[in-house]
Amino acid sequence: MKSIYLDHAATSPVHPKVIEEMMPVYKDVFGNPSSVHQFGRKARRILDEGRRRIAHGLGANEKEIVFTSGGTEADNLAIIGTARANRSKGKHIITTSIEHHATLHAVEYLESQDFEVTYLPVDEDGIVKVDDLKGALREDTILVSIMMVNNETGAIQPIEEIAAVLKDHQGYFHSDIVQAYGLMDIDVSHLGVDLMAVSGHKINGPKGIGFLYIREGTVIESLQYGGEQERKRRAGTENIPAVQGLKTAVEIMEAERLTYKEKYLHYKQLFLQTLEEENISCEVNGSHEKTIESIVNISFPGMNVETLLTNFDLSGIAASSGSACTAGSVEPSHVLSAMFGSDHPKTTNSIRFSFGLANNEEDITEAARRVSQIIKRLS
């Protein structure tokens, strides 16, 4: 029985070309990029080229890209670093109730440091209303943090409209774009955000690498103490093989973005169509039109998340109940609780399926049929 991976929103397989490009760096480029000798200069070239390439794809300046260990560190640097550096202007922060835990736990920490946080609600499609942001915005607001695409439901947030509201306000705008980066065309000159967090392993790159875009002029405080790497914004010797891998993953992603969008949307539609043909009682959580192509969150009435995931795994299907950071938890989804209410059955009977590089059309049909058999057996 073939195992089928439908959890790309948690992490994605590394693209073979990425591995191919990283291996020579591991073998031959061991110098410290901060060293002035030829070994250091060789590493520095890879670091600089990677930064330039990534910045170019975003319409950004290379000086605005700070390499991190991943999305979580990027979110933490953006939120805590910006809050600390701007506390003299105010201590009010706005975020949403559906953010990734990298954001939620960062703002919870700031609350313990006497910052005030407003959590915006979402509608039943999991989308923030711009008017709610306008109502929450204050003169002492110094930061707004709203993710571009939700990691559990795939809901796409109105980032450009929110940025327009904040254009003439002192508050900085941060967005976790981890789930959006691989499929959405992102240009910082149009988007209007000040800070964006990205993770390499969500776009078929290596784990342990990501970056934070910091718009020039944004006042931010480093969270690490040490050397002067990353223009004093992130101390520590840079991960040169991973930078090479991330650069390659970005190049592949940009070249294949439209193909991936069409393919993953087809996979999503095929998966749902097969469930329908099998007469399975289920409902998609969120809007069909306002979600990313690679993610679908499905409620199975009368089912239980833990039981479903266990049975899916035994049948060779890898899926998730939401964020990978809460895997194994029987806690109701905080995202679905925000959408439907904490006591709603959907918070404990919904599964996230996410599609990507590890899939083909046959996998999708077979996975949907196995899921259908399990649902019928458990009903």
Automatic annotation (TrEMBL):
Keywords: Iron, Iron-sulfur, Metal-binding, Pyridoxal phosphate, Transferase
EC number: 2.8.1.7
Domain Aminotransferase class V: 4-365
Signal peptide: none
Cofactors required: pyridoxal 5'-phosphate
InterPro entries according to UniProt: Aminotrans_V_dom, Aminotrans_V_PyrdxlP_BS, Cysteine_dSase, PyrdxlP-dep_Trfase, PyrdxlP-dep_Trfase_major, PyrdxlP-dep_Trfase_small
Reaction(s) catalysed by this chain's protein: (sulfur carrier)-H + L-cysteine = (sulfur carrier)-SH + L-alanine
GO molecular function, one term: metal ion binding
PANTHER family assigned: CYSTEINE DESULFURASE, CYSTEINE DESULFURYLASE FAMILY MEMBER
Family, as annotated: Belongs to the class-V pyridoxal-phosphate-dependent aminotransferase family. NifS/IscS subfamily.
Protein name, as recorded: cysteine desulfurase
Organism: Halobacillus trueperi
